[in-house]
């Protein structure tokens, strides 16, 4: 009997010590869209291998090779756009190897070079999203098949936390070096401190007034203490309250995304620089 009880105790102990099975992480929209793009590219490559250039016409019209905002486009090895199921259809027949995106990046040339040397890869650039009619960050997966490069891209409307943190560091450094010049730069529409859904805003800690805002210039000079989000949270008042006791922090609230034009969950990171709070936020789901 004692031996049986001892065995039961050992078994129960082992059961208790077994770690609980971790729940799989929930995929983000970006991860889902990246997966969709890779699947569509895989289907396009398989079809092209089977029928050759006959597939070009299919890629360029509504059908199974267009998935909402995702579509296939194909370049010849010399950089000529052969077909496109999306906004780049206007480029068909043109050599785009020297073309740059709105930020000046020669992404087609980069794509062609990687395809030539590695066979496949991905490249990030900025392109018109024909669904939202806005220029957004886009990442394209591509693969070379003989003398053709097939590509499918997906849009990246949301900045990562790491990018927001780095952006804030740049803004805070500029503010410490030359506050007046930095504020002018923060307020410049289309300037280097406005990138997609990333922008800077600055609050005077004494008055609570905005002295800079990268996408809503109407807020400059206004009292931010009564500014509230859709849930009634006093955003600036809460940030200033935290700034009284710490040099940096973060706050979650709802705010319009300048890229998607929708009210979304936003996390703003801030640093205290002299008598000002310098802040940068990113949108998340």
TrEMBL record:
The keyword Cell membrane applies. SMART domains: Cache_2 (SM01049). It is a multi-pass membrane protein. InterPro entries: sCache_2. The keyword Membrane applies. One of its GO terms (cellular component) is plasma membrane. It is found in: Cell membrane. This is Single Cache domain-containing protein. The lineage of its organism: Bacteria, Pseudomonadati, Pseudomonadota, Betaproteobacteria, Rhodocyclales.
């Amino acid at each position: 009997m004692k031996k049986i009880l001892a065995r039961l105790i050992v078994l129960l102990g082992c059961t208790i010590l077994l770690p609980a099975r971790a729940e799989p992480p929930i995929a983000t929209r970006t991860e889902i869209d990246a997966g969709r793009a890779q699947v569509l590219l895989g289907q396009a490559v398989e079809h092209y291998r089977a029928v050759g250039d006959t597939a070009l016409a299919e890629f360029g019209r509504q059908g199974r090779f267009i998935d909402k905002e995702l579509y296939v486009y194909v370049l010849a090895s010399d950089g000529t756009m052969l077909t496109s199921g999306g906004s780049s259809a206007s480029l068909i027949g043109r050599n785009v190897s020297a073309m740059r995106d709105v930020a000046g990046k020669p992404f087609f040339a980069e794509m062609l070079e990687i395809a030539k040397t590695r066979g496949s890869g991905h490249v990030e650039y900025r392109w018109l999203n024909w669904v939202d009619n806005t220029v957004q960050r886009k990442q394209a997966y591509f693969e070379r098949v003989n003398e053709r490069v097939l590509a499918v891209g997906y849009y990246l409307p949301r900045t990562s936390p790491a990018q927001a943190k780095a952006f804030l560091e740049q803004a805070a450094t500029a503010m410490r070096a030359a506050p007046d010049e930095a504020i002018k730069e923060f307020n410049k529409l289309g300037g280097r401190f406005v990138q997609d859904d990333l922008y800077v805003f600055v609050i005077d800690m004494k008055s609570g007034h905005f002295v800079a805002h990268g996408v809503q210039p109407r807020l400059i000079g206004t009292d931010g203490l009564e500014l509230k989000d859709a849930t009634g949270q006093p955003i600036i008042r809460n940030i200033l309250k935290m700034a009284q006791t710490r040099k940096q922090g973060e706050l979650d609230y709802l705010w319009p995304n300048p890229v998607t034009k929708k009210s979304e969950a936003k996390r703003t990171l801030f640093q205290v620089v002299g008598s000002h709070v310098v802040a940068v936020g990113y949108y998340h789901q």
